[in-house]
Design brief:
Blueprint: H1 2-18, H2 21-27, E1 28-36, E2 44-46, H3 49-62, E3 68-78, E4 81-91, E5 97-109, E6 112-120, H4 123-130
Parallel strand pairs: 1-6
Antiparallel strand pairs: 1-2, 3-4, 4-5, 5-6
Helix pairs in contact: 1-2
């Protein structure tokens, strides 16, 4: 199971870097639960693939299409859970910059991500960048 979970998450993160929405849709379970940290316009619990895509769309809108996964620093698995240390960048049209590490924990079942819990090293910075 560890190898399958790691493989799925690697494919998912590669698709994120390429902005391959078709592949992302294949790898996210339709009823995925996604927990986004903070108290901002993109935070909270998403309860479906469609809600996750809406959140990502808002991230692209707010960052003038600059949000990007710039580095996959590590990937570690424990059974069907995979923890990843990731680095993200974005620039707000008004000039604010997001330059942050996140730890994402994905749960994989039957070849799909069924749960994602996102942790940020700079919640206040993300709240300020994404706004309310």
């Amino acid at each position: 199971m560890k190898n399958e979970a790691t493989h799925v998450v690697n494919e998912f993160l590669s698709a994120v870097k390429r902005v391959d929405t078709e592949k992302l849709g294949e790898l996210l379970h339709p009823d995925v639960e996604w927990k986004q940290p903070g108290n901002n316009s993109i935070s909270g619990i998403k309860r479906s693939r469609n809600e996750v895509f809406q959140m990502v769309g808002k991230m692209f809108e707010l960052s003038a299409n600059t949000v990007k996964l710039t580095d996959i620093k590590s990937i570690s698995a424990n059974g069907n859970k995979v923890a990843c240390l990731l680095h993200w960048n974005a620039t707000h049209p008004a000039g604010a910059i997001l330059d942050v590490d996140n730890i994402d924990v994905y749960t994989v079942e039957d070849g799909k991500i069924v749960r994602a819990e996102i942790f940020t090293v700079d919640e206040a910075g993300e709240d300020q960048f994404w706004g309310n």
